[in-house]
Amino acid sequence: MLSDPIISTLEKIIALHDGIAEPASEHTLNVLLTENLASLLSLPEDVTFTTKADVSQSVFVTYHSEVLNKLSDLLSTTGQVSALGIKYDGYLKNTNFDKLLTERFVAQNGLIKFVDAKPEITRYILCSSFSLSPHFREFIG
């Protein structure tokens, strides 16, 4: 497993878009892009990405680089990022909701990020009942 987060992310995004990515070293990734992806990135189909500036014949990639931004934009069209709203009719605690959420829902090979919880009016039903003893019923008659 790669420890360089940029190279690791590139590898996953390339694979997600039917490209082939193979780590050449800890900071270098050899990639075979699909024709469409290569055209979108304005790169050749056979390219090497690196996070080290001194690697020759490669594309240097950093956070906020043009290549990484273009690849990040592709994630919004593949359905890998989803927003989820939960309507819960029961009682929820005001505190530690984010912890409760991650304990109850497990994303398989993914990440759940808690954004917001809004207080709502909770509806209650008041039920009152009483019973009469058999002796009192006879008395009322």
Question: Could you describe the 3D structure shown?
Answer:
The protein has 141 residues and is of the alpha+beta class. The chain has helices at 5-16, 35-41, 66-78, 97-104, 134-140; strands at 20-25, 28-32, 46-50, 59-60. A hairpin with a 2-residue loop joins strand 1 (20-25) and strand 2. The mean pLDDT is 77.
Write the layout of secondary structure elements.
Blueprint: H1 5-16, E1 20-25, E2 28-32, H2 35-41, E3 46-50, E4 59-60, H3 66-78, H4 97-104, H5 134-140
Parallel strand pairs: 3-4
Antiparallel strand pairs: 1-2, 2-3
Helix pairs in contact: 1-3
Number of strands: 4
Rg to the nearest angstrom? Answer: 29 Å
- Stretches with pLDDT under 50, minimum 5 residues: none
The secondary structure category is alpha+beta
User: How far is it from the N-terminal to the C-terminal residue, by CA?
Assistant: 84 Å
Q: What does the overall shape look like?
A: rod-shaped
- Arithmetic mean pLDDT: 77
Biggest β-sheet: strands ordered side by side in the sheet: 1-2-3-4
